UniProtKB/TrEMBL annotation:
The family this protein is said to belong to: Belongs to the universal stress protein A family.
All copies of domain UspA, residue ranges: 4-146
This protein's name: Universal stress protein
InterPro entries in UniProt: Rossmann-like_a/b/a_fold (IPR014729), Universal_stress_UspA (IPR006015), UspA (IPR006016)
């Protein structure tokens, strides 16, 4: 199976590990000349919380999710890293339940591979709070590379 499209699903916690995520994706994308879709899903509450910081006046129902994603860290940094490496990128944003929207995004872009980040959590935390990355891995329409950073905590 050829790998033409890689979805890198990121969130605000990935800002501290953007360079490592980019390196992981470039190991696959660069030699295969694959397109990297940088995807960021967010909830309406998250958008409302950060909308002024992002420079938006519009309420959540009036925004373009792709534009919100473009302005959220670490998306622009990742886009720049991939551009410098000569890798074609696309930015995608989705609004709604994060795990579901990331899986929908992978289907929409016909991703051949996904890369998602996660953080260290105890089994009790996972049971109570759930795990977005685990939900994505279980529902993904393609193989997933899970990038776990032990230094990133809630």
């Amino acid at each position: 199976m050829a790998i033409d499209t890689i979805l890198l699903a990121v969130g605000p916690m990935d800002t501290v590990r953007a360079e490592e995520l980019a390196e992981t994706v470039l190991e696959i994308a660069d030699p295969l000349d694959a397109t990297v879709v940088i995807g960021h899903a967010f909830t309406a509450e998250e958008y409302e919380e950060f909308r002024e910081d992002l420079g938006f006046d519009a309420r959540v129902e009036d925004v373009d999710p792709d534009e919100v994603a473009r302005r959220r860290p670490p998306v622009s940094d990742l886009e720049e890293m991939f551009s410098e490496a000569g890798v074609e990128t696309e930015i995608r944003g989705e609004l709604g339940e994060v795990a579901t929207k990331v899986v929908d995004m992978a289907i929409d872009v016909d991703a051949d591979r996904m890369v998602v980040g996660g953080r260290r959590r105890s089994p009790a935390e996972k049971a109570v709070l759930g795990s977005v990355s685990q939900e994505i891995i279980l529902q993904a329409p393609c193989p997933v590379t899970y990038f776990r950073d032990l230094d990133v905590m809630e």
